From TrEMBL:
Example of a GO MF term: hydrolase activity, hydrolyzing O-glycosyl compounds
SUPFAM superfamilies in UniProt: Arabinanase/levansucrase/invertase (SSF75005), Concanavalin A-like lectins/glucanases (SSF49899)
Protein's recorded name: Putative beta-xylosidase
Lineage: Bacteria, Bacillati, Actinomycetota, Actinomycetes, Kitasatosporales
Family stated for the protein in its record: Belongs to the glycosyl hydrolase 43 family.
Amino acid sequence: MVAGAAGVTAAAGARAGLPTGDLGDGIYRNPVLPADWSDPDVVRVGADYYLTASSFGRAPGLPLLHSRDLVDWTLVGHALDRLEPADAFAVPRPDGGVWAPSLRHHDGRFWIFWGDPDHGIHQVNSPNIEGPWSRPHLVKPGRGLIDPCPLWDDESGETYLVHAWARSRSGVKNRLTGHRMSRDGRELLDEGRLLIDGDRVPGWFTLEGPKLYRHDGWFWILAPAGSVPTGWQGAFRARDFHGPYEERVVLQQGRTEVNGPHQGGWVRTPSGDDWFLHFQDRGAYGRVVHLQPMRWDADGWPVLGDDGAPVLVHEKPALPRRPPSGPATDDDFPGGRHGLQWQWAANSRPEWVIPHAGDGLRLACVPSTAADDVRRLPQVLTQRLPLRPCAVEVRLRLDDTDTDTDVGARAGLVVLGDAYSWIGLERGADGVLRLVHRFAERGAERERDAAHPRPAPGGTARLRVEVTDGARCRFSADTGDGFQPSGQVFAATPWGWCGAVLGLFAAASAAQATPGTATFAHFRVT
């Protein structure tokens, strides 16, 4: 096994720019998913591994990733077309929606449970990972109910559910509550009992994210504590579901650079090898996914990573070799449609996208009273900000309609978080199209110019943002005379509980009847 950097060959290092941790020589480097796939959970069905993650208020939600080797993942769909209740997600909610889902396979069906901190615990299920998925079913209503995980216990024939609490909504945290549940996953059979009170465990705080398993005659709850940026991964076990539970820290930062190894899922390969996928908080980049080897010690406790410390590089699981791959980022928008990697900032509306037969994504410049604050626009099409340094480029055309009525129409490329910056095209009060670069600080009510506007002949531009270490973003644009830098360096920030996102948007002031359209083409991340 390789537990440090010494095992990385020069040839393998040349592959490190891929959106994956696969170094191509039988070794992987963490993170295996170098972008914001927050709160991952994983399940194996036959030779296939599936992963889902938090999607918060973006739609579609509940991303579904597939792998054959636990290192190379591809995005294959989403389990949740729209968030419910729909009116609550008509506007961006980066602090709400889908929190910490659990993915399971039972009785020939896939099941996903998640907590919406404002509405309660929901469930969807499907016989196939590609769907169709059932509509969300509210299993337990209430505020502050988060991080649920089911267990169909084949030993007792019982079905259980465990969940945590969000103090921001309920005033309660650091506790795990357990229920008996119906076999069809639709209703709880009791009022629930306190399984673990973190306040009674010396030194433990912010206990959350439980994943429930049955192994070796024990009920196991793998759960993190200590807060996201600085905490640790714990394991709890009991002979009876209702306890009492004993605890142990099984993964912590130690002398590594992996802060707060946090919240994930255990999976076993067909040959009996155990692995654990978890996240690490990387600020503006969000929560990136690491893969840890897992074994059991002489006392029957799990040992994660390198004797409880995260590994940086390691031999890949002993599974059939796969070519290095990762979730898609680039998009030519064939037939006017966007790829699976994109999510809207809120529940989408059909009038946002203008159908056409050619390539390129054609968006309506949707009239809005929030047109001058991109954080408030639901019609922003987003994807995750890559962890590794990159250049993002897209072509934009702001189409002429009636220059008397599309004044204020604007469209562009945005790095969006609690603070944001965007570059794009806007039609001014004089009817002239200009290249503009705007930004808004955290807490600011309106955006400001980041650079002086300049003419954009023909209403077209190539837009670029270069993202370097520390999520520092340099914007530039080409309106016909080559790429020219624009504005100061912008430091991306998280967006609520999410990492910063890359976004494409089109908007207009609220009073316009025919605000125009914007066409995006040749989106590339290199």
